[in-house]
Write a structure and sequence with these properties.
The protein has 13 helices and 14 strands. The chain is an alpha/beta fold and 355 residues long. Helix 3 (59-70) packs across helix 9.
Amino acid sequence: MSASDDNKGDKPSAGPAGRGARKTPARRGPVGAPKTRASKVGMGHGHRGKIMVTGAAGALAQHVIADLTEHGYQVVGVEFRGVQDEYPDTVDYVVDFNQRPFEDVFREHDFVGIAHLGRIRFTQSTRGRRYSANVVGTSRLLRLARKYGVEKVLALSTFHVYGADARNPSLIDEEYPMRAANLMPEIVDAVELENLFNIHLYKHPELNIVVLRPCNIAGPGIKNEISRMLAQRVAPCLVGFSPLMQFIHVADMSAAVIAAFEQNHPGVYNVAPDDYVTYQDALQLAGCRRLFLPSVPPALARRAVRTLGRLAPPEYLIDFFKYSVIIDGGLFSRTYDFIPQYSLSELFAHYRALK
């Protein structure tokens, strides 16, 4: 029986969790086994304690898991999004945070920390399911973290919570309000997720919560909306608009997560390099041909985006392709002595090589 077949057999059923015996979460292999990159370098003894990493199937999580293992942690990868049938070997459990078997994972492992990297993206599910998994599920994760004495929690947020608007300041720091809830209803769950962590940050200081708001994460394996645009041979842009954008390489973002987790100065931090580039220049550096779409009237621009389907960004993200949202990563850089190692030219070279 293959690993995937094994997983399908153990996967928690979608039926009522309250009936019958308690279900064991689906385990994909020996928990704590050396992950791919770490096993190649012969490191990862797990002597520094166990870390839960959520969203373990994602490209960033795979980097983080390998880096944590190299730093001597034993990592347990948990995937809750249920958006695919096959998972990489970084996933140890596939379990819904809102189901009772999730607590079994805490009972079985004495976690010293959690890196909460998983979130169902806006294009991956319905609004109701996103809210249930992202907000309600994370609320349960935090309750279990308190119940089982977890000492550190790191949460990955997004710069999208600031919203894209022509009135945004030229440089946005962490004190700027999260306006996305008013500007883009589709991002409400991301804002509420942050609010949830902010409440716990001050109400439960024993969790030592660090929240990271990175700029656009890009690079090998990343499949977010901006990476999808950069990977295409032809990418749309709006006539008259070419906003400034920031990008951070997935390997640098993993390094930022590790630094924040290990040094652990609780708080909320933007994560971004000092340099930036216009969207149209980014497309050209990535080897894309630009497809200009009408930008006015707004209804015509939205219709053009809908017509292109997957070749264009989702309609609700259009404003991020019109207005600059430049975040100030200075606080994180100073606090954690963080300097990204990958330049923009190195990052875009990856996408150019795909053409």
